[in-house]
Amino acid sequence: MNKRVCSGGGFSTRNRVSAVLILIAGLTVSGSPKAEPADETHFFTDIPVGVTVSRMMQPASQSGASMTVIDQDMIRASGATEIADLLRLVPGFQVSGATISSPYLVAYHGQSDILQRGLEVMIDGASVYSSYLTVDWQTLGVAIEDIERIEVIRGGGAPTYGYNAFTSTINIITRKPIGTPGVFFSGYVGSRDSRGAMMRYGAGDGPLHYRLTGRYEETEGNRGRSDGKALGFLNLRSQIALSDSDELDVALSASDGDLDNNADVPVLLPNTSRDMRADRQRLRWTRTLGRDRDFYVQFYRRYSEQDDRTSLGLLSDLLGVTPADIPLLFDGRQDQEVQTGVYTFQEKRHDIEVQYRDYHPGAVKWVLGAGGRQESMRSFDTFGDDAWRTDNSYRAFAQASIPLTEQWIVNAGGVLERGDLYETGASYRLALNYMPFWNHTFRLGFSHSERKPTLFEEHYRSALYFDDGTVLRQITFSRGGLEPEELDVIDLGYIGQLFNNGLFVDARIFYERLDNQYRTETDRTSSYPGYLNDGVEIWYDGRVGVDTWGLEGQLKTEPWRGGQLSFQFAFLRSEDRYDVIDTGLISRENHVPDATLSLLFAQKLNHGIEASLGYYFLDDMSWNGDADLGVSPVIAQTHRLDLRLAKRVAQDWLLEGVVQNLTNRYERDVRGESAQDPRFLFRVSAQF
Hints:
The chain is mainly β. The chain has nine helices and 40 strands. The longest helix has 18 residues, at 13-30. One of its GO terms (molecular function) is siderophore uptake transmembrane transporter activity.
């Protein structure tokens, strides 16, 4: 795909990227007349530490995979009101506007279509992804104000968390109750009837600490588009010290509300709203066996239901015939309303996991564990009947970090899985870290990930029906018996601190080979049920692969006192790997954007004032694996500019003005939606 040249004197994407890099280099090296002393600590540019990559607390420089940490400084400076927007700050992530499945589409290296498959999302280590092949960002039941940090594994998390962590893993880690005492309130109002309020109460004494958070928000969404919402949730997290060595961690959450469906394929999903409800419960008992050893047992349950079933109108009106013609066309059936419910389903997840870890500093650190999970889903519109589909799966996992010398570390780990939908499979990772100097690390790694089909992919039978249950039109059909997708990743990374620890650098070059990708093709034979079939979309596996390679990373610096700057970048290329004649697919040269960039700058000023700016750029792209429903799958080049101005009043109050998407550039999404409106918000918060 040839890239367009931007308007305004032919300033190309490559030139724009170069200019940004030169600007950052200049800020880093030259500083300012009020630059910090050389010996002052740079907290913002410290090498991040996280637990997600190996299930053990490790600096990113010692871990076996690339990791990004979005901390509270970045969360606050972004001015974000949605968790999905924060992921724009992760190198290689694409975040786009509303699709027919969600107000947000989040993917890593373009490995997605309208359904966000292969992306594991966890809250405090418990999986919250949906069996419907999407992420319900609206029903996560977590307030941004309660987030401690977000840790993201870039490039295959399956060797740590199993098949759904195929392309990447997002772990939303919330603040502990002991760290959120008292009453906290936050509320905002803004354009397009946007408003929301959040309240939190935290307390505790002795062995018990707890936090109760409630939030409600609503908005009309964007002009000319049905993407409004009215959603609320309530969650409780408590930690109970049962003894000097035993702790019980309890998390409960419930979400409820309405979400408008933004339909770009109106015959399948008209502009209607859907009711959404979800609840989850997590119970974890942890026993500390020593200073550097612990063991836990965790039980987790999640339930979700959605209902968007609606009438498309009378069959005679849809076909443009008279009611008297219907019995002649359809074997004596009378004229009737045709109903559809694309997102009408119920799903349940029960999961139990045990884990033991030994992480003594300077010695071999290791983790062993096992778990079992039951996924259940019921949907007449998805499967063609009201029966529950169930998949039972089992897993065993191990991780190890082995110091060979003071300069060399080997990281290895893997997951062995078996389920009702596939035979035993393995995902694994091996990495070698070399530290020639203090705070400078080179890492060479390889990982192999497998992703089994979900209940949705294995049994999908989408259709329009007569009122007696007979198929009127078959829309999609899964062949079933799908083999796992496979992803191999080779990467070489560097993590370090330069200029007297004033610049943090995280960069990697990589090659990814995706095999056996699930795709769709249009079958125009008459072998499928239905009266109006003019082509059925068939899901299948095999014969399709994608190669992706590129450079991605992050730079963080404190160019002068009170200033914080982070720059995230990804330069990607990809090629389809299949026979066009054999598969019947049309090869698209580039499924990923040449460049995905984000820049976040924050500056503390006098009198308790703080200003910040976020810029996000996404180059032209077409989603990898996207089905062809007769509309363009290409997203046009997009620019987004967010601004935030905040002032602290009397220590307890914070006033903020936020502008999101100030540029208001045209953002055609997977199906060519309309532009994203700029959003103006005024927010006030207080801690008592």
